[in-house]
């Protein structure tokens, strides 16, 4: 009995509560053990890595001037990762080649000058329709992309988020749908665009996109391996079958597995955009664990959505606040912690809130502020529960 009581004292989930229990007589030695255990737990909790070791970041696609308020907020809340493209406004020379080292270095230093760490290129230069559609000039684009990777790594950035959506990229049918409390959210309904005419490129088949993707990966992944550059494919958004005759192939989990098996490599991975994979029908925590344990998750878009079409992949959906959509966000964050993810993570497609103009739909300041606080609370919770 005495040994059992000692084990309870040492292993109980709340040591401090034990000290305050009435009606139980503890020896001086037992009280000393309890106090030592409490101090040890407090020290362990105090030494926890901030944000569970992940790089809390924000996207700044509008540029520094448009995002100045978000930059200041991010520094105050200590979310110091900056995700953006290669902004020629920072370079200061409209004729500069964005894949050259001098251009990249100016961008990296520009973010450092405002107190942020440029940690992900989202929307890399020299990866456009020539490569994705297999048009004349794609070899030059690919050569420039390889040059870009090497110079980016030299400048200290090792994650590139890219996609395989030629001609028509990120698409929504509404940028100001009413959300909770009148907040504005983006939404998509395929029925509203299904009859739009073909683009100038006519019908582009899935087979052609796969052929071009294989050509790209076989040229680029071996070079990425040499310099340890993490290539993070973003899913099609929306993840429908096609838009205006342009097929979509990065719209199922199975197709992502196929993509990564074209050139198997730890550097040929994914951007875990939760919203899109959820709208494909994936169990997000389960998928995070599978790809995470394979070392394939290089970057996370932590977002939530609500599916409205009744079919998967979804053809009708809306964005939501992080705490109200279809995804179990706590279990998702727990999965990232459990797999040991320590890379960049950012909120995505946040609502526009009261008092804001909807000038950067999905990326306004207050929604990002809410999201970071929510994410930080989840990160602290999942990390501390391993100790308490």
Automatic annotation (TrEMBL):
Cofactors (names): Mn(2+); Fe(2+)
Biological process terms in GO annotation: D-glucuronate catabolic process
Matching PROSITE patterns: PROKAR_LIPOPROTEIN (PS51257)
Pathway(s) the chain acts in: Carbohydrate metabolism; pentose and glucuronate interconversion
N-terminal signal peptide: none
Iron-sulfur found in the keyword field: no
Alphabetically ordered keywords of this record: Iron, Lyase, Manganese
Family: Belongs to the mannonate dehydratase family.
Its biological purpose: Catalyzes the dehydration of D-mannonate.
Protein name: mannonate dehydratase
Species, as recorded: Sinomicrobium oceani
């Amino acid at each position: 009995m005495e040994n059992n009581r000692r084990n309870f004292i040492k292993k109980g989930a709340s040591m401090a509560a034990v000290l305050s229990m009435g009606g139980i007589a503890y020896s001086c030695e037992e009280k000393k053990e309890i106090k030592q255990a409490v101090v040890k737990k407090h020290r362990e909790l105090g030494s926890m890595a901030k944000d569970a070791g992940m790089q809390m970041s924000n996207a700044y696609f509008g540029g520094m001037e448009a995002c100045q308020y978000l930059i200041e907020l991010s520094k105050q809340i200590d979310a110091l990762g900056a995700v953006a493209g290669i902004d020629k406004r920072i370079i200061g020379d409209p004729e500069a080649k964005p894949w050259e080292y001098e251009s990249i270095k100016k961008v990296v230093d520009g973010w450092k000058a405002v107190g942020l760490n440029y940690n992900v290129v989202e929307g890399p230069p020299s990866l456009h329709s020539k490569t994705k559609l297999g048009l004349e000039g794609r070899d030059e684009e690919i050569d420039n992309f390889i040059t870009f990777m090497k110079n980016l790594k030299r400048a200290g950035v090792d994650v590139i988020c890219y996609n395989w959506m030629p001609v028509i990229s990120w698409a929504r049918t509404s940028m100001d749908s009413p959300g909770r409390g009148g907040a504005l959210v983006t939404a998509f309904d395929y029925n509203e665009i299904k009859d739009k005419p073909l683009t100038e490129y006519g019908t582009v088949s899935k087979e052609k996109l796969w052929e071009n993707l294989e050509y790209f990966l076989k040229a680029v992944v071996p070079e990425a391996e040499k310099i340890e550059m993490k290539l993070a494919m973003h899913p099609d958004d929306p993840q429908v079958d096609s838009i205006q005759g342009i097929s979509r192939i990065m719209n199922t989990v199975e197709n992502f597995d196929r993509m990564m098996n074209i050139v198997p490599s730890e550097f040929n991975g994914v951007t875990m955009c939760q919203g899109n994979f959820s709208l494909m029908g994936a169990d997000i925590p389960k998928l995070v664990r599978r790809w995470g344990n394979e070392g394939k998750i290089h970057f996370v878009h932590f977002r939530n959505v609500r599916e409205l079409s009744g079919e998967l992949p979804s053809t009708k959906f809306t964005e939501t606040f992080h705490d109200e959509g279809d995804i179990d966000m706590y279990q998702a964050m727990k999965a990232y912690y459990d797999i040991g993810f320590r890379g960049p993570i950012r909120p995505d497609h946040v609502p526009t809130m009261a008092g804001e103009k909807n000038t950067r739909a999905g990326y306004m300041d207050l929604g990002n502020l809410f999201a970071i606080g929510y994410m930080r609370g989840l990160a602290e919770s999942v990390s501390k529960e391993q100790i308490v």
